[in-house]
Amino acid sequence: MTVYPLIIHVGPLMITGFGIMMMVAFLMAGWTIQLRLRGMNLSSAYAEHIVVAAVIGGILGSKLWYVILHQDYSQFFSRGGLVWYGGFVGGAAAVLFNGWRERVPARFTLEISAAALPLGHGLGRVGCFLVQDDYGIPTSLPWGMRFPQGFPPSTAQNMRAWNIDVPADALPTDVLAVHPTQLYEVAALLFIFWLLWRLRNHNHGTGWLFSAYLICAGIERFLVEFIRAKDDRMLGMFTLAQATSLMVLALGIVLMGAWWNKDSAQIPTEAAILKEPKVKQS
Fold it and tell me: How many whole angstroms separate alpha carbon 116 and alpha carbon 106?
């Protein structure tokens, strides 16, 4: 199957499928947090603050991670050059800083945001598919996809430049069928979202759901990296993202153990978000 990127031209503006899905991802993640807060009889206004902080911190973090990793400072002002783990760290830092500013305990913020993270990430991966980035290694499976205008194109020349095995008789310009790893991640992340949403009323400590997210996300990314078309493999088949995934997994296990037992106060009553604005009586 040959697939082409989704690009919409409106006058001088170019709107990509990735940009559209990034917007959808943040909106849906915010909506999920709103549902979580309403289910706890709390004001949903805090969800909007989380989304704004996540957008700013996430984009800056993903750009900085890419620029530092590749030493390519021109990508800081380009459409590309976004790295998920950089966005996760930058977004989390911005969200927690905003929570501290609003006097909302960090563990509570992590708890209500946990299920929204895989949902937003999964929808963002749909954008990666639409722009044809982050695909996998060549495959002969029937659902393998060719990306002649991918970012970059899935040609034999590009695969060889990444030290990926391709058929010896493949010409440099041949567009190869590859694993649509973006869609694999979409399916895995939506499953993680479903699982965490089902577990949202758990009987563990505040923040436990976030630790479960870290474990699931670390495993998911570690596994998919084996078939991603990458040029950052460090120890044989292992990539930098896999090393990061193992650290995320380890952190999740540590936090899950620390937050296993239920708190004496599951909902922080000092949080400003607990009270709906009072309506003045006329």
Answer: 16
Q: Which residues contact 220 (CB under 8 A, 6 or more apart)?
A: 185, 188, 189, 192
Cα 196 to Cα 46, 119, 123, 191, 253: the distances in Å are 20, 10, 16, 9, 16
Give residue 275's pLDDT.
57
pLDDT at 76 over 60: no
Number of neighbouring beta carbons within 10 Å of residue 274 = 17
- Residue type at 76? F
Task: Grade residue 270 by pLDDT with cuts at 50, 70 and 90.
Answer: very low
Q: Which of 12-21, 97-106, 239-248 has the lowest mean pLDDT?
A: 12-21
Helix (H) or strand (E) holding 125: helix 116-131
Question: Of 236, 127, 247, 243, which is closest to residue 185 (Cα–Cα)?
Answer: 127
Q: Supply the mean pLDDT for the chain.
A: 85
Task: Label residue 43 by pLDDT band (50, 70, 90).
Answer: confident
Cα separation, 134 vs 231, in Å, equals 11
Instruction: Round to whole Å and give the CA distance between 47 and 109.
Output: 10
pTM as predicted: 0.85
Q: What residues does each domain of the chain span?
A: 7-204
What are the angstrom distances between the C-alpha of 278 and each of 35, 45, 274?
A: 20, 14, 12
- Cβ atoms within 10 A of the Cβ of 91, count? 26
DSSP string, 147-194: -TTSSS--BHHHHHHTT----TT--TTPBPEE--HHHHHHHHHHHHHH
